[in-house]
Structures are given as C-alpha cells and as structure tokens.
C-alpha cells in the first residue's frame, strides 16, 4: 500500500515507515496504552464477577439472540439496540425496560444481554437479581433474628443498573410488598435505571405488587412485549 503523499514526503521513500525506531516517547505511549487495556480488562472481569450472573447467563448477548424467530423478537432487539445507543441519556433519566411475555420468549436473555453489553462497552456496575430470590432473602431477615442483609440490600438499591428478573411471579405478603416498594421507590427517586422481566403485563402489576410499586415500575420503564413461542421448546425440536 502506498503512503499518502504527505507521509511519503515526511519519511522519505515508501516503506521506511515500517523501520522507524520507536522513540522513548512512543514506547511510553505504548506501555500506557497496554496498561490501560489491561486495566480495562481487569475492570470488566471484576464487574462480571460481581454481577450476579450465572455461567449460562454470561453467554446471553445480543450476538447470541436470534431476532428473526418472530416479529416481536425482532422489534425487541431494535429497541434494545436503541436503548444501548442512548445509554447516557437513559442513565441520566433513570429509564429502564420492562420485558413481558410468555415462558421462554427471551425476556431474561435480552435483559441480561443489555447488562453484558453495558459491562463490556461502558463498564457499568450492573447487578442481576431474581425477584423470588430477593423475596426469599427478605423473608429470611424477617424470620431469622440477627441475619443481616444490609450490604446486599444496599447493593441492590444502589446498583448503577439493576436487572430484576421474574417480577410478579408470586403475590407477596403485605410485609414483603412493602420491602419491594422500598427498593423500587429508592431507585425511582434516585433515577437509577432498572430492567424488569415478567410473565405478567403492566395491567396486572398493581394487583400483584400493589399500586404504588406498580405505578413507579411503569413510570420508569419502556415496555417491551415478547409474544413468540417458547424458545426452549424450539431449540429442543431443532436439536432433535
Ligand atoms: N431469539 C432467541 N435466540 C436465541 N436464543 C433464545 C432466543 N429466545 C430465547 N432464547 C434462549 O432460550 C432460553 C429461554 O429464554 P429466556 O430464559 O430468556 O426466556 P424467558 O422469557 O425469560 O422465560 P421465563 O418466562 O421462563 O423466564 C434461553 O436459554 C435463551 O438463551
Ligand atoms: Mg426468564
């Protein structure tokens, strides 16, 4: 390949560029770049370590999601891409996403894909929690005196990005509902983005979570409906 004329003039004949010795200045720059890269990799690894994601979920990315399985999946991917593109704005406004739809339609996959992309691209401290697990932990602190969940609860309340998976799967008692409200209300007030997945639609949320929690969830999220087939079954049939 020919050098552009300006470079050819500067460095004499074509190709000499390759043999230019690296000045101490550029060596320093390279070292710094390498150091920054390794620091970035270490940061990504540590964010993944603390993300609460299982081994399987670390593979839930946009690249591994097939958008053409049905129209709603394709549309959902478009909206996820737009969300990632506008992340700085979304973060500032505390905007999240609410994936709803039937079993195996890809809700958890897409919610986790957003997390994985933001950890890799922007090194966002993100946390994945399933709501049933969260409720179990809340109940335990109620039943087991002395059990202290404060640190974990603070992490859930304050994560830069929180994924709450399987919202509304069960109708919690008033006491547990109140604890859920504390988390959701905190994230709403502090404008911290939260991504929810749920088998139930927004219209059923008030009955399941109480009106005050449901109203905040709906206010801070863009709803994305997935109405395709159960992908677990599709994958089984394809594999057979
Ligand atoms: N369009 C897709 N392309 C590739 N894999 C998919 C797709 N949709 C779902 N999957 C895979 O199918 C499995 C089920 O998807 P996922 O767990 O996201 O479903 P879900 O909607 O959260 O279901 P549930 O309501 O049971 O929690 C996962 O292993 C996921 O990676
Ligand atoms: Mg799920």
From TrEMBL:
CDD domains, per the entry: AAA (cd00009)
Source organism of this protein record: Rubrobacter radiotolerans
UniProt signal peptide: none
GO molecular function: ATP binding
Residues annotated as domain AAA+ ATPase: 93-225
Domain of life: Bacteria
Gene Ontology biological process terms in this record: DNA replication
SUPFAM superfamilies given in the database record: P-loop containing nucleoside triphosphate hydrolases
Gene3D superfamilies membership: P-loop containing nucleotide triphosphate hydrolases
One Pfam family hit: IstB_IS21
NCBIfam families: PRK08116.1
Protein name: DNA replication protein
């Amino acid at each position: 390949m020919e050098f552009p004329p300006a470079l050819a003039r500067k460095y004499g004949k074509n190709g000499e560029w390759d043999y230019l010795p690296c000045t101490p200045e550029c060596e320093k720059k390279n070292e710094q770049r390498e150091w920054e890269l390794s620091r970035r990799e270490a940061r990504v690894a540590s964010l993944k370590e603390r993300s609460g994601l299982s081994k399987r979920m670390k593979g839930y990315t946009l690249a591994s999601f097939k958008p053409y399985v049905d129209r709603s999946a394709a549309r959902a991917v478009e909206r996820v891409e737009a969300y990632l593109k506008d992340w700085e704005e979304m973060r500032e406004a505390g905007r999240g996403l609410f994936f709803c739809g039937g079993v195996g339609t890809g809700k958890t996959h897409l919610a986790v894909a957003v997390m994985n992309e933001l950890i890799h691209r922007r090194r966002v401290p993100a946390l994945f929690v399933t709501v049933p697990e969260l409720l179990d932990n809340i109940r335990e602190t109620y039943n087991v005196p002395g059990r202290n969940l404060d640190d974990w609860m603070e992490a859930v309340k304050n994560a830069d990005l929180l994924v709450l998976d399987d919202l509304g799967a069960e109708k919690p008692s008033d006491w547990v509902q109140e604890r859920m409200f504390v988390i959701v209300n905190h994230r709403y007030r502090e404008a911290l983005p939260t991504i929810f997945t749920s088998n139930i639609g927004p219209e059923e949320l008030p009955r399941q979570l109480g009106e005050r929690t449901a109203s905040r969830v709906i206010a801070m999220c863009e709803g994305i409906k997935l109405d395709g087939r159960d992908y677990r079954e599709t994958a089984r049939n394809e594999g057979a």
